[in-house]
TrEMBL record:
It is a multi-pass membrane protein. Residues 15-389 form the Major facilitator superfamily (MFS) profile domain. It is found in: Cell membrane. It holds the Pfam family MFS_1_like. Keywords: Cell membrane, Membrane, Transmembrane, Transmembrane helix, Transport. PROSITE patterns: MFS (PS50850). This is MFS transporter.
């Protein structure tokens, strides 16, 4: 009996380490590629409009295909196979970038890259949440390795690019994703009892008022969190910061998410999911409002940990909310829809409105809009709290 218990503990540690490494490598690849990709396009003479058009493809692909990936996984219970396929195909497409040049070629390659990359995060989230629910532990303690990977990649790839040229971003991205394949083999097998078809489960999901309201709040809160990555360099240089300082800021911002994610699970258990979502939203709204008030570049750097208190708490709380409210047969689909609305549609809409405001009134009006959007998203989370209160009274 003791031998069996020790064997189970060893297996649990292997899975925990494997999940952590996949998050680390996935976000390492994301950090290596996306922070420098616009500069690579610029090197080949693409205009700002052309670069913006290519980058806008990402959210569109996420909106269209993340729910499809989720439904495939839920229908066939093939999370590991789909994840391995997505990692392999995304890495292979990345290696084609150095061989093809021009706006159309870059547009098609980036669309293909996004098609497969969009499957990875929601599937990994679903597997991780299922694992911690059965074996114990905190989602945030595993997810934090993604924040560490992104932070390390920003510095590491920037150093390599200065020495060997921007083309290295594709090799680092592909290498990280292909390394992730080995760790995916260690993932736990996900078996869920068939409680109905995916289509019926999806119908039930979209008839849940709390889930639908949550999608709206993710659109309004998570959209600005992502759009901030596109506009921060404009803000930072406007308030007197340097281009080199932008890289330092992103390193600190991403690094601050890890400790916040580590304590997120205990905070969620103590105060509740909705409370943490509201706190993360309030911190975000105050942050965007403060950025809109023309702060000094030095203070923006010194208060880098605000990102951890917002993004670092929001992501684990959001993933846990979905896990607890979605029907079992559509867990991956539920995660994918959330990612599609927040990371896809929310980012695209917020970036577009932010760009219009930037052209008309300047970067500070963009961040003022981020703050306004987040406040409305907080009100939707409060509406879910009210629904919970009414339900508990009726029960």
């Amino acid at each position: 009996m003791e031998t069996y218990r020790l064997k189970k503990m060893s297996e649990t540690k292997i899975v925990y380490r494997s999940l952590s490494m996949v998050y680390f490598l996935f976000f390492f690849g994301i950090g290596a590629l996306y922070t420098l990709l616009p500069l690579y396009y610029q090197k080949f003479g693409l205009s700002g409009t052309q670069i913006g058009t290519i980058m806008a493809v990402g959210p569109v692909i996420s909106i269209l295909f993340q729910p499809v990936w989720g439904m495939i996984c839920d229908r066939f219970q093939a999370e590991q196979k789909v994840l391995a396929c997505a990692l392999t195909c995304a890495a292979s497409i990345a290696l084609l970038f150095p061989l093809m040049h021009g706006f159309i070629a870059f547009l098609l390659l980036f669309a293909g890259l996004q098609l497969f990359q969009s499957a990875i995060n929601p599937i990994t989230d679903s597997i991780t949440l299922s694992f911690v629910q059965k074996q114990g532990g905190d989602y945030g303690n595993i997810r934090l390795f993604g924040a560490i990977g992104f932070a390390v990649a920003v510095w590491f790839t920037g150093t390599l690019a200065e020495r060997f040229g921007l083309v290295v971003i594709f090799y680092v991205y592909a290498g990280a994703f292909l390394l992730g394949l080995w760790w995916v083999r260690q993932f736990p097998k996900v078996h869920r009892e068939k409680t109905g078809s995916v289509w019926s489960g999806l119908g039930r999901l979209l008839r849940l008022p709390k889930y639908v309201i949550f999608l709206g709040s993710a659109f309004l809160i998570f959209g600005p969190m992502n759009a901030h990555n596109y506009y921060f360099s404009l803000l930072y240089t406007k308030i007197g910061g340097t281009v080199a300082g932008v890289g330092v800021a992103f390193l600190l911002f991403a690094g601050s998410e890890a400790p916040a994610m580590k304590v997120a699970g205990s905070l969620i258990r103590k105060y509740g999911i909705l409370t943490i979502l509201i706190v993360a939203g309030v911190v975000s709204a105050l942050r965007w409002g403060w950025y809109a008030s023309t702060p000094s570049a030095a203070w923006v750097i010194m208060l880098f940990f605000i990102q951890g208190m917002s993004v670092g708490l929001y992501l684990p709380a959001a993933a846990t909310f979905i896990r607890e409210h979605a029907p079992r047969e559509v867990q991956v689909t539920a995660q994918a829809l959330y990612s599609s609305f927040g990371n896809g549609l929310g980012t695209m809409f917020t970036s577009f409105i932010g760009g219009v405001l930037y052209d008309r009134s300047g970067i500070f009006s963009t961040y003022l809009y981020f703050s306004f959007s987040t406040v409305v998203g907080i009100l939707l989370v409060i509406a879910i709290t009210v629904l919970n209160t009414r339900t508990s009274r009726q029960g």
